[in-house]
Amino acid sequence: MDQADAEKILTVSQTAQTLQKKRGRIDLLNGAVVPTLISFALPLAFSFVVNMLYSWIDTYFVSRLGSSAIAAIGISEQLGFFIFNFGSGFAIGTGIIVARRIGEGNRKQANYTATQAVISMLVFSTLLSIALYFCLGWVLNAMNLEPEVARLAQVYLTALLFGVPGNFITFQINSIVRSSGNAIFPMIILLLTTVLNAILAPILIFGLGPIPSLGMMGAGFATATSQLIGGAISVLLLISGKTGIRFMMDRMKLDLPLIGRIAKQGIPASLQMFSVSISRIALFKFSSSFGTGIVAAYTLGLKVDLLVFMTVFAIGIAVETATGQNLGAGQTKRIFQFHRSGIYILLGIVGFLAINVFLFADRYASIFTNDKVIIRETTRYLHTAVFGYVFFAMGVVTTRVISGSGASFRSMTIVGGSLIFLQVPLAYILSHYTELAQQGIWFGIVGGYILFTIIAFIELSRKKWLNAKV
Fold it and tell me: In terms of Cα–Cα distance, which of 25, 29, 27, 91 is closest to 328?
């Protein structure tokens, strides 16, 4: 070992010890793997569950307006997710670079990267929300929805667009702070905005005193307002340095080469998210050919799926962050230890949740509606979908290792190829060319998850992702 290597290891060790002493931060470089992974993932899991309540809250209140409103919320959420993907990839790319810089012990460069990313995101998200406002009607018309469903979706999404800058900025800052090992801050921000949404949603949807009933528009405005407030608070805390990453007020001039490196990571990450969104929109379109009731059933079933997947996403992001930091510190062995531990943890948790969902599927559906047809179809969906949960979990954690290394294009290829070119065609064939009808869509979803996992493990074993540069 030469002097340069020794100095690097000493710097990384000192940095890790400093981070560990700071409240809310987890030492991903030196701590025991399983306890460290659980400690970091728990606040993330809670954050995602809280975030999931955003859509549950809107759906709970809007469902009182009828099945068309439920279907409109389902379509709107997928389009909203599609819109969100424009900025989420950039945020994920930023997080990957920040994690690598922290692993290398270069805190100053991590702060500078964060500053450039936040400024760029603010400009981009504002321009994007304006552009989407003028494209929204065309997109909904292209989906061939029933007129009432399309009308309600447009009303909801038009209001929601006002919150896009706040939503993007919040996600950007949360991704940056998580990459430093702090999972508490994102949890607090998401909890705050969810509580605000829960307070505002019923007031704006149904009216209160002098406040008129706004229906679907009220649901959109409630979420948008909460997101804007969350974004403002996140920026203020980043400037104060209380998040562990400090916004550098004297370095706000755009650094195009750095932004280009972030985009190099972010664009594949966005395309990966787009592939998820495109596949879901396609599945919604397939569902619509069997009637509004099936669209509503898929909407409610997907909510239950996503609630289960919150733990998967939490463990996945924890493994991704650990991969970036440990690769920067030259600790390759720990990356595979984190991956293996994440798989074992999820096999137990997701397996238990899958059994729970299978046994009580009808009760989950009845939370949102008393329509017996929708409850029956939602139950059928869940009784099929649960068999793909474990495969989905293993595939996500595996691709998170690859993306965390900076090999975003490889990760995108795995996810996009599996969903768009395998899951979607399989769902279409089974639902339109067999007697399974809508049930074929559900079988296609499970089959896609299985293929996704197989491909992810093959790519992980090749280890080419270890050479990614960020």
Answer: 29
Backbone dihedral angles phi then psi of residue 182, each to the nearest 5 degrees: -100, 105
Nearest to 353, CA basis, from 390, 319, 316, 381: 390
Measured CA to CA, the distance from residue 64 to residue 80 in angstroms comes to: 21
- Orientation angle between helical segments 67-103 and 33-62, nearest 10 degrees: 160
- Domain extent, residue 85, equals 29-467
H helices present in 289-367, as ranges: 292-328, 332-359, 361-366
Q: pTM for the full model?
A: 0.80
44 found inside a domain:
yes
Closest CA to 300 of 60, 83, 46, 84: 60
- Measured CA angle at 81 (ends 366, 262), to 5 deg: 145
Confirm whether 5 is domain-assigned.
Answer: no
HSE-CB of 379 using CA atoms within 13 angstroms: 15
Q: How many CA atoms lie within 13 A of 274 on its CB side?
A: 13
Distance CA 391, CA 83 (A): 27
Is residue 414 a contact partner of residue 455, using CB atoms and an 8 Å limit?
yes
Write out the two tokens for 390.
């474990």
Neighbour tally for 380: CB within 10 Å = 17
**Among the listed residues 239, 242, 241, 240, the one whose alpha carbon sits nearest the alpha carbon of residue 252:** 239
pLDDT in tens, 275-323: 887 898 899 889 989 988 898 899 889 989 988 998 999 999 999 999 9
H/E stretch holding 429 reads helix 424-432
**Number of domains into which the chain is organized:** 1
Q: What single DSSP character describes residue 213?
A: P
- Residue 295 is encoded by which pair of tokens? 């669209």
pLDDT digits 0-9 by tens, 152-161: 888 889 998 9
